[in-house]
Amino acid sequence: MINKSTNDILIRIADALDRLAPSEKKINNLDDGDGFIYDSKTGLIRPINNINRIPIDLLQGIMPQKKILLENTSNFSNNLPANNALLWGARGTGKSSLVKSVHAQVLKETSSKYLKLVEIHREDIGDLPELLYLLSKYPKYKFILLCDDLSFDAGENTYKSLKAALDGGIEGKPNNVIFYATSNRRHLMPRDMMENERSTSINPSESVEEKVSLSDRFGLWIGFHNISQDIYLEIIFAYVKEYKIPMEKEKLKAKALEWSITRGARSGRVAWQFIQDIAGKSKTQII
């Protein structure tokens, strides 16, 4: 016989074990939106009301990158062969903005209700195999799986989960999922980490090759580079025209250049921050 006190203790233990157990992975409703975020704490893929993105025509200075990713994504949406893509390069050059804008453009061109953008945070990459398995249960839908600012530091092993999930395991990647990642690093690993592996390994070439082979899982490498002053100004002028911000062109040019000098950089992100500043000062709504 179990007395009441013992029974209460057993119930508390069972409740504690339930809280420690991994959350069941599930999707609330795929028809609730076009964009979703994977939440590792709850195990939910929750819809977001408005995807933070801008029209693809406003992305200036990256025409080749735009063409490559748009064609690849269109092929994927139309059940044609398509590659996983690594968008790498200088910060603020429009890598994640391009992914989100391309998704919107393909939705517009195809009038498809079934192409979904799902973001997974870099710290949740270890859950990627389970997430892919979950998405494979919905073959009617197509999923662009986005990981923004993906990179790995010394001592991390989660990159092995990514390698296997992309195309290295016996199960492979589901046909209804494509993986897009953005990173400041072409090989996703810092150079000093690779050099350290080379100097300390029994077979340094094999150890470094394992790290570099992660990038090889991406069929497309799309590079983004620092932009020129002329392209920076083109971006500014395009935003001003789109949002009808009242400012004389020469004054706008002078202020835009001054802004880039104070920030120590010229990029799409810096241009957008400048636009937000002058739009606020001129009381112009841009959202």
Report what the structure shows.
The relative contact order is 0.13. This protein folds into 2 domains: 26-224, P-loop containing nucleotide triphosphate hydrolases (Rossmann fold), CATH 3.40.50.300; 229-281. The chain is of the alpha/beta class and 287 residues long. The longest helix has 17 residues, at 4-20. Strand 5, helix 4 (128-136) and strand 6 (142-147) form a beta-alpha-beta unit. It contains 10 helices and 8 strands.
List the helices and strands and how they pair.
Elements: H1 4-20, E1 26-27, E2 35-39, E3 44-48, H2 63-77, E4 85-89, H3 95-110, E5 115-119, H4 128-136, E6 142-147, H5 159-168, E7 177-183, H6 191-200, H7 204-216, E8 220-224, H8 229-243, H9 249-263, H10 268-281
Parallel strand pairs: 1-3, 2-5, 4-7, 4-8, 5-6, 6-7
Antiparallel strand pairs: 2-3
Short account of what is shown:
This protein is α/β, with parallel strands linked by helices. The protein has helices at residues 4-20, 63-77, 95-110, 128-136, 159-168, 191-200, 204-216, 229-243, 249-263, 268-281; strands at residues 26-27, 35-39, 44-48, 85-89, 115-119, 142-147, 177-183, 220-224.
